[in-house]
TrEMBL record:
Residue stretches spanning the membrane: 12-39, 51-70
Record organism: Shewanella piezotolerans (strain WP3 / JCM 13877)
Keywords from the named record: Bacterial flagellum, Cell membrane, Cell projection, Cilium, Flagellum, Membrane, Transmembrane, Transmembrane helix
GO CC annotation terms, alphabetical: bacterial-type flagellum basal body; plasma membrane
InterPro entries per UniProt: Bac_export_3, FliQ
Claim: Cell membrane is one of the keywords in the record: yes
Designated name of the protein: Flagellar biosynthetic protein FliQ
Recorded superkingdom: Bacteria
UniProt function note: Role in flagellar biosynthesis.
One GO-annotated biological process of the protein: protein secretion
Record-linked PANTHER family: FLAGELLAR BIOSYNTHETIC PROTEIN FLIQ
UniProt-annotated location(s): Cell membrane; Bacterial flagellum basal body
Family from the record: Belongs to the FliQ/MopD/SpaQ family.
Name of the gene: fliQ
């Protein structure tokens, strides 16, 4: 196994991780920013007001994008399994 092959595998793994995490986190960050601007404009300092919309957005994102996340992970896993003979031999 060459160092270049290991770096390619590591790069692909990081790309999959970033893709999966961004699909879950980015919608919550956007909703959190909108709620924070609303709280700053109205001077409402309630902690649960910012937590609940972010939680619901994250759960909704997982429900809607769950199949795509699992499909992405399965494709990466199958690619890694298919590369075993090339890496070993």
């Amino acid at each position: 196994m060459t160092p270049e092959a290991l770096i390619d595998i590591f790069r692909e793994a990081l790309a999959v991780i970033v893709t999966i995490v961004s699909m879950i986190i980015v919608p919550g960050l956007i909703v959190g920013l909108i709620v924070a601007v609303f709280q700053a404009a109205t001077s409402i300092n309630e902690q649960t007001l910012s937590f609940l919309p972010r939680l619901l957005t994250t759960l909704l994102g997982l429900m809607l994008m769950g199949h795509l996340l699992v499909q992405t992970m399965m494709e990466f896993f199958m690619q890694m399994v298919n590369m075993i003979p090339q890496v070993i031999g």
